[in-house]
Amino acid sequence: LYSDVLLNLEKYVVNKDSLARISARIYQRTDQYLKEKGEKSSAAMILMGGWIEGMYIATQIYERDQGNIKLLENIAEQKYSLNSLISLMSNYYGDKEMTEYLLMLKNLRRSFNKFQIYYKMDEVSVDTVHKVISADKYFIDVQPETILEISSKISSLRGRIVR
Questions:
Q1: CB neighbours of 50 closer than 8 A, spacing ≥ 6?
Q2: Cα separation of 116 and 127, whole Å?
Q3: Dist CA 88 CA 28 (whole Å)
Q4: At how many degrees (to 10) do helices 96-112 and 79-90 cross?
Q5: Strand ranges, E, within 22-137
Q6: Is the distance from CB of 71 to CB of 58 less than 8 angstroms?
Q7: If DSSP states are collapsed to H, E and C, what string results for 117-146?
Q8: Rounded-to-integer distance, Cα 28 and Cα 55, Å
Q9: How far apart are CA 30 and CA 136, in angstroms?
Q10: 83-88, long-range: CB within 8 Å, 24+ apart, which pairs?
């Protein structure tokens, strides 16, 4: 699977749904491998670290270019990814380090909850086979100050990880 993905990465990058499915399969295989090696929460930690680093880069760029509405929207769209990440990490609540990060992510979610993403009903499609919900048009009601607040919390969370 891994060599297959690398050879065809360009093909997957243009199709977000394919990229999401491939990413999910890679995560599942990596998670299975780590569980077999006794590292049950490691895949979740790796996923969290990657998400935090991506968000850190995006928010740092936004801080320098606050007029970039597309980037503001891309950051805001991560609201649902954060919810999924929190759900995943909740499976390891007994782990002390995981619990600390989980609490910080829940604090971050409070900032994301300050705004809404509205979808047009006739523009939403649901693929129950692949468990994908997609929408062609949406409206995000978010203030730049909220994105800067998210940026600050992401930076703090990243600082705890990259000690």
A1: none
A2: 23
A3: 12
A4: 160
A5: 116-119, 124-127, 132-135
A6: yes
A7: EEECHHHEEEECCCCEEEECCEEEECCHHH
A8: 22
A9: 32
A10: 83/109, 85/47, 85/48, 85/51, 88/44, 88/47
Give tens-digit pLDDT for 92-108: 878 888 889 999 999 99
Question: Measured in whole angstroms, how far is the alpha carbon of residue 86 from the centre of its chain?
Answer: 10
pLDDT one-digit tens code per residue, 108-136: 999 999 999 887 777 777 778 876 777 77
| CA nearest to 113, candidates 72, 145, 146 | 146
Cβ partners under 8 Å of residue 91, min gap 6: 44
Residue reference for tokens 């490691």: 42
Left (φ > 0), alpha (ψ -120 to 50) or beta: where does 38 sit? left
> Residue for token digits 């969370």?
157
Q: Which residue has the higher pLDDT, 35 or 161?
A: 161
